[in-house]
Design goal:
The N terminus and C terminus are likely disordered. The protein has a single domain, classed as Alpha-Beta Barrel (TIM Barrel), CATH 3.20.20. The longest helix has 17 residues. It is globular. Helices cover 34% and strands 13% of the residues. Helix 2 packs antiparallel against helix 11 and helix 7 packs parallel to helix 8. It is of the alpha/beta class. The protein has an eight-stranded parallel barrel, surrounded by five helices. It starts with 11 loop residues before the first helix and ends in a 14-residue tail after the last helix. It binds flavin mononucleotide (FMN).
């Protein structure tokens, strides 16, 4: 992790507000281990993505190891810096809070991964295993908010959106087979309506055991967005392949799609596999245009200067 840059961090809630006023969904690119790195984030940002996620970073290692910090989180010192959410894997409140404070100068917000289904993660009570630990998740987000506030950041949700020091704290979840458990989870983590614990929520409507080849659970998404969508902005992660083929409809989409479930409580979309194949997805391209590959290759070569190079770089990473 390098450089000191405290400027131009748009508050994610401001982006939600802006896109709502434009009568469209907020467009986001998902956290993807190995892939959603700087060059990729810069590329999708050029093609209409509003908010980008880093890959999941393990908070404990990030806090303790300089090499982990340098390899796991890279930002651009050249404008524009895409609005970026740093996602952490954590299971200890203090670890998440410390790691969040470390990245706060360089990001718009932090996110806790409660969805990774991989066995190594679940064995360590990370990722989807946290869906069984709602009190712990609530503690982690509360501790993070209080550390950020103590470090001078503004974490008052809507009241912070105009502050240059405004930062968000969010979680990304999967659903349970028994949806009542997901309702309990969200209720606990969200906290009181007048002073909620998270700025926004991302729902991946598959259980920890559902393969990604199985379509997302629209009924679960409908229940959860109608119960919680007025209390907290909600993003959906899963099966966002193109804007014209979403398996639900909304007034925030360019055209009405009769016969599909209407989701008035949904505020935005998060794409992973599709945006990886086509970074220009949100700009309306049905397939990856050559220019997007070109853009990506240019960003990669800038962000990976040859080792021990004596050339000067206008950007440092
Ligand atoms: C290569 C890859 C890496 C991923 N890494 C993460 C991650 O670091 N954190 C996370 O919360 N989800 C991760 N996911 C899950 C995605 O963010 C997303 O929730 C899931 O793929 C469903 O979205 P999709 O149907 O658009 O692919 C990853 C998915 C893929 C394909």
């Amino acid at each position: 992790m390098t450089e000191t840059m405290d400027s131009d961090h748009v508050h994610p809630l401001k982006l939600f507000e802006l896109t709502k006023s434009e009568k469209r969904f907020l467009y986001t690119s998902a956290p993807m281990v190995r892939y959603s790195k700087l060059a990729f984030r810069q590329t999708v940002y050029e093609y209409g993505t509003d908010l980008c996620w880093t890959p999941m970073v393990l908070a404990k290692e990030f806090n303790r190891n300089n090499f982990a910090r340098d390899s796991d989180f890279t930002i651009s010192t050249c404008a524009p810096q895409p609005p970026t959410i740093v996602q952490f894997g954590a299971n200890v409140p203090l670890e998440l809070a410390r790691a969040s404070t470390l990245v706060a100068p360089y990001s718009s917000g932090v996110d806790l991964n409660c969805g990774c289904p991989q066995s190594w993660a679940c064995a360590e009570t990370l990722g989807a295993a946290l869906m069984e630990k709602r009190e712990l998740v609530r503690e982690m987000v509360l501790e993070t908010r209080s550390h950020l506030a103590a470090a001078g950041y503004s974490v008052a949700k809507e009241a912070s959106i105009s502050s240059p020091l405004g930062r968000s704290v969010s979680v990304k979840i999967r659903v349970h087979k028994d949806l009542r458990k997901t309702v309990d989870f969200i209720t606990t983590v969200l906290g009181p309506e007048q002073d909620r614990h998270i700025d926004f929520l991302t729902i991946h409507p598959r259980t920890r055991h559902t393969p990604s080849s199985t379509p997302i659970n629209i009924e679960a998404l409908e229940v959860l967005t109608s119960m919680f969508g007025k209390k907290v902005p909600i993003l959906v992660s899963g099966d966002v392949f193109t804007l014209s083929s979403l398996p639900y409809t909304s007034e925030l989409l360019p055209s009405e799609r009769p016969g599909l479930t209407e989701l008035p409580g949904l505020a935005g979309l998060m794409s992973a596999r599709a945006i990886l194949a086509n970074p220009a997805l949100y700009a309306g391209y049905e397939a990856c245009p050559w220019e997007a590959v070109d853009t990506f290759m240019n960003k990669v070569s800038l962000s990976l200067p040859p080792p021990n190079s004596h050339f000067g770089y206008s950007c440092s990473f």
